[in-house]
Prior knowledge:
6 helices; nine-stranded mixed beta sheet; D-amino Acid Aminotransferase, Chain A, domain 1; single chain; 2 domains; alpha+beta
Amino acid sequence: MSGNMADRDGFIWCDGKIVPWRDVQTHILTHALHYGSAVFEGERIYDGRVFRLAAHSARLINSARLLEYELPWTRTEIEEATRAVVKANNLQTGYIRPIAWRGSEVMGVSAIGTTVHLAIAPWAQEGRLSVQVKPGGINVTMAKYRRPSPDVAPGGSKAAGLYIICGIEKDRALKAGFDDALMLDWQGRLAESTGANIFLAMGDRLVTPKVENFLDGITRRAVIGMAEKRGWTVDQRAIQPEELADASEVFLCGTAAEIVPVGAIDNCRYQVGPMTRTLMQDFTALVHQTDSEGFGESAHLATA
């Protein structure tokens, strides 16, 4: 099999049909390619089931609405399509990329008059997808770009166009010998990494940035739920960059990353400590539960 994502065996659900992988195409003048009007999700398959599919599907619909368009499929229809294409690919473990985009009927800033398309592409993948975990944790540097303010961009949407600064900062970090970059928000407070949320262990509690115009990650919510189940206090508040020096542990979390310990953020160094290790173990247990507890998060939380 080729390493090229366009040249693979398997099947993709596209606009209501399951079709061979290589047959799925879109035109070069698609509005989303030129103006960034696509929205997407990243989902994981564990033991043949999609982790928190309802929340992901609801967030996809909400992301499109924040970009001023509606998906012509209901959440239930998206979930049914997702399960069907996972089954068609015979996947027990893997990653799924649903993406909705505006078509090629109009070429201009306005997308009024374009059709809306949806594709769901799953493929086999094990382990963390965004970074390679190191025994002492990954090395992170501070990004130059900041997450935009609510009056600049709809940061609650998982929109393709909003990821351009994440890609730039990720590349800068890798070229400089780091594994990822940590982004501040428009007010200079901690926000997130280029593709994951961040938690700090400070004393006997976990602290994470209050969500303000960046994604309230579905894995982030899972981490908060696991911590609270253990009786740990989780503070969601504004965090200033200088507070990084006060943390004993730091980790990133997201669908692709799962839970990844951070060993250093520039000159601040951290241990891979008991809170991080416990949550990594709890998350592994959560995604492999045989009942529905770990997979049944309410869909309405995706727009909270």
